Amino acid sequence: MKQLVVxxxxxxxxxxxxxxxxxxxxxxxxxxxRRESCAALVFANEKLKYQKLELMLAANIDIGDIVxxxxxxxxxxxxxxxxxxxDLHSWRRKLxxxxxxxxxxxxxxxxxxxxxxNKGKRYHVHCCMPAAAGxxxxxxxxxxxxxxxxTPFELDARKWARGLGVDTRDLGSEVMGYEPLARYMCKEHPxxxxxxxxxxxxxxxxxxxxxxxxxxxYTVVTPKGCTQLQEAKASSVGYEFVKFLVPE
Length: 248
Description:
Blueprint: E1 2-9, E2 12-19, H1 38-60, E3 66-71, H2 81-99, E4 106-110, E5 124-129, H3 135-142, E6 148-152, H4 157-164, H5 179-185, E7 198-200, E8 208-214, E9 227-234, E10 239-245
């Protein structure tokens, strides 16, 4: 039997299948784990972080929605990440007052990769939200700390990257889909262990996950009419993976 896992988030589908081995099928005994590899653990956590964000973005953001950066000018530079969090909460309250409702959004706070000599961290906020009527103007009106850059989200990451002045080399090897944006928003390491580097509002839609057992001859394929983003296979362990976008 194979274990089949299907993640559904908006138009995005991630389907994984691998050989399912029950305990009585295993002919070897694993030695007790003595020490976790720090490097391997960090790598796994970083990968899981952007994969979770990728699904959340796909569930809540579509083509034409807003990808924005809230920047600080020299007069309003925050002294710490805590100050940025307070500014972000204040900005969201002003947005609610202007729009009459709280828009759902996902965001992350960054600063470590843009250190200025003798000036400390240059904090800024990346955020994504649906492009409802008046939202683009409202996010600029509500933010009084510096310049707001915003552009429509596109499945081709090179397009929204140009709109924000982002170096396409920061997007990774993939340029299509939600993974480049998720990787870009997760590119910074946390300032301390256990820190959550990205977050979202309560109104955000959560992706669905379905797990089932299928026959050994089951093959994972991209359905006809869908746009394939990624495919991977490892015959030695019966692992198959495919990521694709369903039609609008």
